[in-house]
């Protein structure tokens, strides 16, 4: 009987987290930490030039792909991952799940990007009335599900929706009303994106000398991941 029970136990879902030159130091690890501390257990595998390849086989074994924050321009960063774009978007369209944090949110949009949003991503700091107007690491205020929260922010995107079908807006920027986090369908899959960094760990704040008045926001990273997996 024990053998039968073991055979019927579901395996732990696999999450692939990009780690490489399109990401920033510590960003991939922060996303991995958010996954490992979520209510659902995740078997996290890093993919990238120094880790496992983002191959069709790796995608076939995974339930979620996560693109962390990055550095530099979106165009330069996307150049490091564009060779895998067709395989990744086909996998999501076939039922996979994508979650993008900051640069990963930009990547979900177009020109350059994976083109998986029902609209596009844009640079918040260039928007009239934006609370933050430069690229320095800081915090920003969002309305997340009716609650005002302060999140780590570094030149993150906002999101525009052209087709609202199936779109679930999780958060908006208080200063502009633009979308800060959302989940949307892409084919048979789902895409979750967020402009700020709810996955930021305490060392991020310590290094930059930043204080978050309402504490770490890992619970919001957990919510984003859970919503994209619905």
Fold and architecture overview:
The protein has helices spanning 2-8, 27-36, 56-60, 74-78, 85-93, 103-107, 202-208, 218-228; strands at 14-18, 43-47, 64-67, 97-101, 119-123, 138-144, 147-153, 157-161, 168-173, 179-186, 189-194. The protein is of the alpha/beta class and 230 residues long. It has a single domain (11-228), classed as Class I glutamine amidotransferase (GATase) domain (Rossmann fold, 3-Layer(aba) Sandwich), CATH 3.40.50.880. The strands form two sheets. A nine-stranded mixed beta sheet has the order 2-1-3-4-11-10-9-6-7. Strand 1, helix 2 and strand 2 (43-47) form a beta-alpha-beta unit.
Question: What structural keywords apply?
Answer:
230 residues, alpha/beta, Rossmann fold, 9-stranded mixed beta sheet, two-stranded antiparallel sheet, 8 helices, 26% helix, globular
């Amino acid at each position: 009987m024990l053998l039968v029970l073991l055979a019927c136990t579901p395996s732990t879902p696999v999450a692939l987290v990009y780690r490489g030159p399109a990401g920033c130091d510590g960003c991939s690890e922060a996303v991995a930490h958010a996954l490992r501390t979520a209510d659902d257990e995740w078997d996290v595998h890093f993919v990238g030039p120094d880790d496992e390849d983002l191959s069709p086989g790796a995608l076939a074994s995974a339930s979620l792909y996560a693109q962390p924050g990055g550095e530099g321009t979106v165009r330069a960063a996307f150049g490091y991952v564009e060779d895998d774009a067709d395989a990744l978007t086909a996998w999501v369209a076939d039922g996979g799940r994508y979650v993008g944090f900051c640069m990963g949110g930009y990547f979900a949009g177009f020109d350059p990007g994976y083109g998986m949003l029902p609209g596009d991503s844009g640079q918040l700091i260039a928007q009239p009335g934006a609370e933050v107007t430069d690229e320095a690491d800081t915090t920003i205020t969002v309305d997340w599900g009716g609650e005002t929260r302060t999140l780590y922010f570094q030149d993150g995107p906002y999101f525009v929706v052209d087709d609202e079908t199936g779109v679930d807006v999780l958060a908006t920027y208080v200063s502009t009303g633009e979308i800060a986090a959302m989940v949307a369908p892409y084919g048979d899959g789902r895409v979750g994106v967020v402009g700020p960094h709810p996955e930021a760990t305490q060392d991020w704040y310590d290094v930059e000398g930043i204080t978050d008045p309402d504490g770490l926001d890992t619970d919001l990273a957990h919510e984003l991941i859970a919503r994209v997996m619905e």
